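Appendix B. Raw example, untouched.
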Amino acid sequence: MLLVGAWYYFDKKDNAENNLETNNQEQLIAVEKHNKEEITFPEGTDPVVKETVAQLSKHILLPTGDIKVATVTDAEEFKKQDPMRLQFVQNNHKLIQTAHGIIIFNQELDKIVDIVRVYPEIKTDQEKTQ
């Protein structure tokens, strides 16, 4: 009985490790495939926007759809809007707005500073009837 238990334990452990390696390889292949895909921009897109999005896309998979890019010029005033969620914003950071939220990106350091998730407003039953 002990021999069967040991066989079962070690066999399951080996299978779990093999499955983990396979899943990691599949994820790496998917990321490499995504990185090779070229980002298409509408005609007349500012070169700074193209550079920022291309640089950012090396760090995070961006959702499809409209993406807006802005540069922070007055961080203290901007933080007043939502001090908790915008606490890491500094001047010259890039704000990349997607349908899912805002990515705060330090282009000089080539680092994502923060990701601020934006949730859609949920209307109450009372608001819906008005």
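End of appendix B.
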